[in-house]
Amino acid sequence: MEEFRSLRLAFSPNLDDYNPDIPEWRRDVSRVIKKSLVEATGIPSQHILVAVLPGLPTAAELFVLPYQDGTRENKRSPEDLEQISELLIHKLNQNLVHFELKPGVQVLVHAAHLTAAPLVDLTPTHSGSAMLMLLSVVFVGLAVFVIYKFKRKIPGINLLAQP
User: Fold this and answer.
1) Who's near 110: CB < 8 A, 6+ residues apart?
2) Could you tell me the residue range of the domain that residue 113 belongs to?
3) 104 in Cβ contact with 115 (< 8 Å)
4) How many Cβ atoms from other residues are within 10 Å of residue 133's Cβ?
5) Which domain CATH number covers 63?
6) pTM of this prediction?
7) 34-64, pLDDT tens digit by residue?
8) What is the 3-state secondary structure (H, E, C) of the chain?
9) What is the pLDDT of residue 122?
């Protein structure tokens, strides 16, 4: 199973003032952030994928990808991905990643948190409280159905509007 690193990015608050929350704007800003990260760190662009998330406050997800060069022999190991992630976090924490949104508007990019994310998650994770809630709804629905279907045959239920 291949793994990649995922890092949540946050921005200086002035970016929210210019966020129209449309896909085209998010794609453009993603490209600008990726370019800034490559310039600040020297990491090849094949290792980096940036996706600006919808909504406010403006946030993005940075993915550090395991990429192979043309020889197919030099595939990056998880240790390499960890080193690249640490370099990115270091540069982000030093406030070295920034871009100019428009003349006079500088936007600072910083790290929010880091997670290890497998490409395919095979572990089923279900919330116990969600399963309990689902079972409760099913039970109540079944009880309502039984009462409705057999209302005349259940002793102790008196209906006033019987024909």
Assistant:
1) 9, 10, 11, 92, 93, 95, 97
2) 3-118
3) no
4) 11
5) 3.30.70
6) 0.62
7) 999 999 988 888 889 999 999 888 999 999 8
8) CCEEEEEEEEECHHHHHHCCCCHHHHHHHHHHHHHHHHHHHCCCHHHEEEEEECCCCCEEEEEECCCCCCCCCCCCCHHHHHHHHHHHHHHHHCCCCEEEEECCEEEEEEEEEEEEEECCCCCCCCCHHHHHHHHHHHHHHHHHHHHHHCCCCCCCCCCCCCC
9) 46
Query: Are 114 and 130 in the same domain?
Result: no
Q: Are the C-beta atoms of 9 and 112 separated by less than 8 Å?
A: yes
Number of domains in the chain: 2
d(CA 123, CA 104): 48
pLDDT digits (tens, 9 = 90+) for 75-98: 556 677 888 888 888 888 888 899
Which residue, among 130, 86, 104, 99, has the nearest Cα to 30 in the 3D structure?
A: 99
Same-domain check for residues 41 and 82: yes
